[in-house]
Amino acid sequence: MQVSVGFLAVACVLSALRAGEADELQYPPSRIAVVGAGIGGSSAAYFLRQKYGKHIQIDVFEKGEVGGRLATVDMEGHQYEAGGSIVHPLNLHMKTFVKELGLPVKSPGDSRLGIYNGEELVFHESDWFLINLLKMLWNYGFNFLRMYMWVEDMLDKFMRIYRYQTFDYSFSSTESLLHAMGGNDFSTKLNVTIEETMHKAGFSQKFVDDIVSATMRVNYCQGVDINGFVGAVSLSCLDSGLWAVEGGNKLVCSGLIYASKAQLIQGTVTSVQEKVRPMKSGGTVKLYELSYESSTGPQMEMYDIVIIATPLSKGVSDIKFVDFNPPIQNFKNYQQVVATFVHGQINASFFGCAQPCDLSDVLTTNNRKLFFNSIGAVSPVKSEAKSSKPVNHKVWKIFSVEPLAKDQLNLLFESYHAVSVKNWLAYPQYNPPEKMPPIILHDRIYYLNSIELAASAMEMSAISAKNIALLSHHRWYRKTDRIDQEDLTERLKSEL
Ligand SMILES: Cc1cc2nc3c(=O)[nH]c(=O)nc-3n(C[C@H](O)[C@H](O)[C@H](O)COP(=O)(O)OP(=O)(O)OC[C@H]3O[C@@H](n4cnc5c(N)ncnc54)[C@H](O)[C@@H]3O)c2cc1C
Ligand SMILES: *[C@@H]1O[C@H](CO)[C@@H](O)[C@H](O)[C@H]1NC(C)=O
Ligand SMILES: *[C@@H]1O[C@H](CO)[C@@H](O)[C@H](O)[C@H]1NC(C)=O
Question: Looking at the whole model, is its pTM more than 0.85?
Fold first, then answer.
């Protein structure tokens, strides 16, 4: 008898405690800040509005242009994608955005691929499907076929995240998000290089040296020592059906901010600090004070929740987190990438290509002598502007780690008449094994770009944005049964 009375008493105290906790947090948050209006910040605004409803105030801070790393450069009155340019057909968030916003899309068009090793073309695609197939088989055996299957298997796992998110599940770390998608297979990929990953999967060294290396160099301006996950994401770009937004990918960002009815604040966020404020109803509330510089001088605002949607990295965002314990500091350095646009005639003999050279995309293998990573013909973001240029006088986009000197351009081109340059701190310098930065930086401060340490891509930012909209909501209302759940794939089978 005594035992059960005691038990009852404990149960009462526990439920009273829980009620007390719930009371304290029953009020909805009223203001959320999003720092950064790239695809991460703008899709966060969109998902936050979906999740929190119409009454919450969402402020999006942007120090530069809406779109961030989705940006165009101007060449002779036409706009070209200078940052994030292509989207995979199975990137479902990006697909939903363009559909909801009514934005037309286009495919990047046919390309004729070559791979240059610093002396000659080790691979040169021809007009004929059969010839290409034979060349691939001759050079690489069944490695290409195997790679498509390998990437498909990875995509199958990757696609699980959309189901989890539809059912409201969220993850408190990038590791647990990736583990939920692909189990130990994905977790291990974060810890080893793409080269090791592909060796283990049975790919030949020649395939890794030529094809894999060239793909990493064009997509991430780094070598085959980047982590296996970002490496696999990178290889998925060899799939067909890639697309881009007509008029420029950045239109997705401005569209999402508009659709979310968020307030866009042009200004540079300089610091974040936690403040305790008295409430009207008595008691206190903890808020975050955001200081920022705008054209009208320094200002500040208070928020319940803050979402950092820009890399916290040297030279990128420069936000001070004042008096946090443990301190919040910069994470990984970002890789410099220079995009140089040139309107001119390519030097066929430089590539050892027969005249007239029909190449439109040249990738490179890892050769220290090479001063560029890739060169490819590009068309303006608006389709109608395409036709006016004579053949052989295309606009080329060159990616390099260092800015190109004049004599280097003179090697690559027989002649040219316009140059435009965009310098990026583009994506993390991948260096496995490494720990992912936290998603939860502090009680109610979230870091959207943690996911970039796994892989940097538009869709990754959108996935992280939705995850944080869900996670912040569940944590606010203490719905722990929707955070970091194991075996979701099995469990969701029965939820349908
Ligand atoms: C050259 C290049 C090619 C790429 N190619 C592809 C591709 O083909 N496909 C693909 O999917 N991805 C590609 N990517 C990667 C993709 O562009 C990025 O992963 C994605 O755009 C990141 O979006 P984000 O919103 O997370 O960050 P960002 O776009 O960097 O947005 C952050 C925003 O925050 C703002 N900001 C920073 N600090 C502050 C501050 N203190 N106060 C206020 N605002 C601030 C910045 O101005 C910026 O607008 C490429 C990237 C580059 C650079
Ligand atoms: C990856 O490496 C980290 C340490 O860098 C370790 O904590 C983790 O367990 C490793 N994961 C796997 C799946 O090997
Ligand atoms: C073209 O490439 C060849 C071979 O590298 C080089 O000798 C020549 O100077 C380059 N430039 C022009 C304008 O032909």
Answer: yes
